[in-house]
Amino acid sequence: MKGFFDKIFNKNKKESNSRFQKHSNEKNEKQSDELKGILSLIKIKEKEDPQIAAKLAAKEIKHRVLSTLIEPGGRVHVESAFAILGSLAGYECLQYTLISFIENPNSAGKIMTIKDKDDKTYILGDASNKNISFVFSVISQKLKDLNAEVPDINEIIAHSTSVIGSEDYGVPRIPEGHQIGFNLVDTIPLYGSFMNIVLLPFKVKREDWRLAYALAICTLIQESKDILDPSISAKIVFECLIPMSKKMQ
Q1: I need a labelling partner for 183 at 20 to 30 A (CA). Which of 8, 133, 169, 249 fits?
Q2: pLDDT category, 17, cuts 50, 70, 90?
């Protein structure tokens, strides 16, 4: 499936030169008319809704994931979309854990690192779990609104921790009939792509990147509830999110 993700990454990279020009600090860089409109809307609404940028970014991220998964005939393998978004949300939790600890170690929470036999580093502790809990709280509220079962996040974390260093780490336990066909780490190039063509151009606050991914997931849960049980959607999300939030690549 590596070629599949290369295709997605290259498509998003190409689109960044047309739909939304890549973020730059150069004052003379032109912005697309659409991006100008989005930024204007954010400026108008941000006082009454401080998270408007994250909400608009969430819609764009969800749209881009779905548009790149469209199969012949217009079908989308929605389970793959949830796996991608869950993986990216997890990777953002990892990045924000590290950033928070570096910038303010006293308030970030405790952090522990362990290495496996291949010298790969894993991030554990309160600092990591705090960011996971933030995303979980947003998504679990959506599930409750839909009267759907909320995944046992503690069990997923415990399982992921118990298989550190084994071949089972990063292999999501997805219900039969809903499997995905790629490795979670294959989604990492999309993280940089969405950072450069959505999150930075939309001027989403750094602390709201987690929210943007969580809201993208919530929106897709709502939109796909008639074709995929929201509890299964959430199970896929967190089976992908947890391992991606712990292992440094």
Answers
A1: 133
A2: very low
Give tens-digit pLDDT for 153-187.
Answer: 999 999 999 999 999 999 999 989 998 989 999 99
User: What number of CA atoms fall less than 13 Å from residue 208's CA on the CB side?
Assistant: 19
**CA distances, 194 to each of 87, 93, 99, 209, 249 (Å):** 13, 15, 18, 10, 18
Residue 186 DSSP one-character state: G
Distance CA 213, CA 220 (A): 11
Task: Give the whole-angstrom CA distance, residue 100 versus residue 80.
Answer: 30
Distance separating alpha carbons of residues 165 and 185, to the nearest angstrom: 15
Residue linked to tokens 């991608």? 84
Provide the 10 A C-beta neighbour count for residue 23: 17
Average pLDDT, the chain: 88
Asked, for residue 23, whether it belongs to a domain, the answer is: no
pTM above 0.85, yes or no: yes
First to last CA, the chain: 18
Structural domain boundaries enclosing 85: 2-16+36-246
| pLDDT attached to residue 12 | 52
**pLDDT (tens digit, 9 = 90+) per residue, 49-61?**
999 999 999 999 9
Q: What is the DSSP letter of 192?
A: H
- The 8-class DSSP code of residue 193 comes to H
CA-to-CA distance for 122 and 51, rounded, in angstroms? Answer: 31
Number of domains composing the chain: 1
Burial class (CB in 10 A: 0-12, 13-18, 19+), 119: exposed
